[in-house]
């Protein structure tokens, strides 16, 4: 218990450092004193303080929420499926969001980020609903393996349709290219306001049902003996994963490896206790996305590399090292 608490505190410290870097570093470096003044006593005549308050605060908060949401969604998926390599993509969420955005761009109804967010959210949600509807039919309805297979099949189908549309529409391809790279650029206060309640409430519910999900993961017979509704818990977890991953994907574009690598690393640090796993995953996921976003700002000035690209590179590298240097953590 004490060791887990210390690990959670350490993860919180790492996140605090990442937040500081995100507010201070960019195409224009800003000293910490100016950052602090922008947060506590804003001078509207200071360009540097306006950069912090108007641009970097929203970008940082979106990064925190998206990273935490993806990592918690990944931890829930891994516990539900009892597969340490599961991630929210198994539900077809990224593919569904991508197809929805591509369709909207082709029809000319999603020219800006503000329009793409709700469209991506709806597409991600519909994909997850279809996967669950397929996986919930027939023998062994709702079983994790059926859901995973349904997700893989639907993802392949949706991806092929998406690519087919892109191949025949160069204008859509150009706009889609900017979204699919994943980015926190240009996020406004309204985006933060929309994302905060979804992510915080969903994570809170996940923590409340974490013990029940833990019991289901240990064995269905034991869960039934405790009076837990296995079907109800599975359905609720699918809904939670969908809300978290869809919100993150809609806000920041497809970001890979966060939902896979962070929970796996967190499990190696705190064990299989799901409440602690969710807390450490949320902190670690938020920190990873912010660090990757900062790296993307500084490696190719004056331009930027999308956070989805840097996350894929760094997250993949971290996961490869984990795979080489430690055995796979069993659930």
From TrEMBL:
Predominant place of localization: membrane
UniProt KW Transferase keyword: no
One GO cellular component term noted in the UniProt record for this chain: plasma membrane
One Gene Ontology MF term: transmembrane transporter activity
Keywords associated with the record: Cell membrane, Membrane, Transmembrane, Transmembrane helix, Transport
Gene3D superfamilies per the UniProt record, alphabetical: ABC transporter involved in vitamin B12 uptake, BtuC
Keyword Cell membrane on entry: yes
TM stretches of this protein: 57-77, 89-107, 113-135, 147-168, 192-210, 277-299, 305-322
GO terms classed as biological process: siderophore-iron import into cell
Compartment(s) where it occurs, according to its Swiss-Prot or TrEMBL record: Cell membrane
Membrane topology label: Multi-pass membrane protein
Domain of life assignment: Bacteria
Family: Belongs to the binding-protein-dependent transport system permease family. FecCD subfamily.
Listed name of the protein: Iron ABC transporter permease
Organism: Demequina activiva
